[in-house]
From TrEMBL:
Residues in Histidine kinase/HSP90-like ATPase domain copies: 28-130
InterPro entries: Anti-sigma-factor_SerPK, HATPase_C_sf, HATPase_dom
GO MF entries: ATP binding
SUPFAM superfamilies: ATPase domain of HSP90 chaperone/DNA topoisomerase II/histidine kinase
Protein name according to UniProt: ATP-binding protein
Keywords, ordered alphabetically: ATP-binding, Kinase, Nucleotide-binding, Serine/threonine-protein kinase, Transferase
Domain of life: Bacteria
Residues forming coiled coils: none
């Protein structure tokens, strides 16, 4: 048997898809940033032609609103700026919101009479229902990133018989 470097797969099997990428923007920790972030995420998904179904888009936009709202309401004192990141892989999409507040929130079920407090619980439910995942991570600067990742709509792979090259 010849011993040489392993064969590389053809480029079309390893090259990123046209819609893959990472987009990051900052916004002031103000209520007006909530709809702006939601619209920016929606526009990026559309402009990049990310293959999402309407349920995934609706869920992702609600998650974006909840994450930015939480950062605005609970972290603004220590974090006058927040960062929103949208990352798209071949078969997943992830939205993350970063702030400089060290507190790691927990998802709590709120009582019927509570006016708020359901944001993270709602994010966890939407994410779980879609077959995704979510989490909270510390940043090197002492803040946190709260994120949710959802699977994309069924995307044919470049090697599947149904796709045309």
């Amino acid at each position: 048997m010849p011993s040489g470097p392993p064969a590389e797969p053809p480029e079309e099997l390893t090259a990123p898809l046209a819609y893959e990428g990472v987009w990051r923007f900052t916004a002031p920790a103000l209520e007006s940033s909530v709809p702006q972030a939601r619209h920016a995420v929606r526009d990026l998904l559309r402009d990049q032609r990310v293959p999402t179904g309407p349920d995934i888009v609706d869920g992702l936009l609600l998650i974006t609103s909840e994450l930015v709202t939480n950062a605005v309401q609970h972290a603004a004192l220590l974090s006058p700026q927040i960062a929103v990141e949208l990352a798209v892989g071949a078969d997943w999409v992830r939205v993350a919101v970063e702030d400089n507040h060290p507190y790691r929130p927990k998802a709590l079920e709120a009582d019927e009479d509570d006016l708020g407090g359901r944001g993270l619980w709602l994010i966890k439910m939407i994410t779980a229902e879609a077959g995704g995942k979510s989490g909270v991570e510390h940043t090197a600067s002492g803040g946190k990133v709260v994120w949710a990742e959802l699977p994309l709509a069924c995307v044919p792979s470049p090697t599947s018989p149904s796709s045309s090259l």
